[in-house]
Amino acid sequence: MARVLVTGGAGYIGSHTAQLLLDAGHDVVVLDNLSNGDQAIAPGEADFVRGDVSDRPELDNLLADKGIQAVLHFAGSIIVPESVENPLLYYRNNTVASQGLIEACVAAGVDKLIFSSTAAVYGEPEVVPVTEDSAKVPISPYGTSKLMTEFMLRDTAAAHDFRYVALRYFNVAGADPQGRRGQSMANATHLIKLAVQTALGLRETLTIFGDDYDTPDGTGVRDYIHVTDLADAHVKALDYLLDGGEAQVMNCGYGRGASVREVIAALESVTGERLPVEVGPRRAGDPPSLVSRADLVRDTLSWEPQLDDLEIIVEHALNWERQLNQRR
Ligand code: UD1
Question: How far is CA 19 from the centre of its chain?
């Protein structure tokens, strides 16, 4: 068992992972500035510190005083269009903040780090499914800011006694099966979040962003992964590093795609009602299809997804959104 620091542990993926780390018997310290996070979804059993990853003195104290053995770094900014409008904010919150964190780890002798990377590092891949070796040509500052952090991790691992796992997330969706937490960001732009809000009558219609792509039904295809399975991959990545595993960068998806229309059909099957949808133009910067090759993560971490089912994913997202709406 280890004592770990979870940055962004009051966020969507960080909070789910913090819970599974606690369930596995680890000691968890959450560091979150609550700029996008919600303290209500951070697990109550974790030691909660409100603070910023870029506050170096605070970080140095935390790493030393709390006896941290490994860091799971979720904190960051994730809205792709916002990164296009305000790139320097993304380089600060993602790249610069990560540089400071990695440096603090090396200085404190914390030699294990798990990093939230993204499929956005691949940009618009020419061949799908994408392997870890596919070309990295991000088309947004968000993707670039994450890829730059991967480079820093790679070079740090080569120069110092330091090992890391970077997980490149595909489309993360769903919510805690027990309803304790889910995607709480107020201005989320994700398909499944917007679709369940429409099903609950919080939005009038869902717009399909283009149905003339070169895909089986013309709509965009993505590799949707349940947040609890993704959180479990982090717990296994920690075990891997604790067991002496070498630095590794891995795709994290299920390795199969679903179209926008298939997501809508899954939701309609869960609710038993038709979803009001309309077809609109393509959204700038959306690749037609983004699906992972995910053999490496399965083989390296012995990761076995438990919730690889689109209906389960949308049902959990729906349950969470209903709760969130009642709370507000
Ligand atoms: C993007 C980023 C991802 C990031 C995520 C959340 C890329 C390649 N991926 O994923 O790294 O983590 O945003 O910020 O940049 N769609 C509709 N109608 C809607 C919303 C979406 O049809 O109202 C479609 C999109 O065109 C796309 C699919 O649904 O085909 C998924 O979109 P979304 O959930 O926004 O995620 P990505 O853009 O794939």
Answer: 15
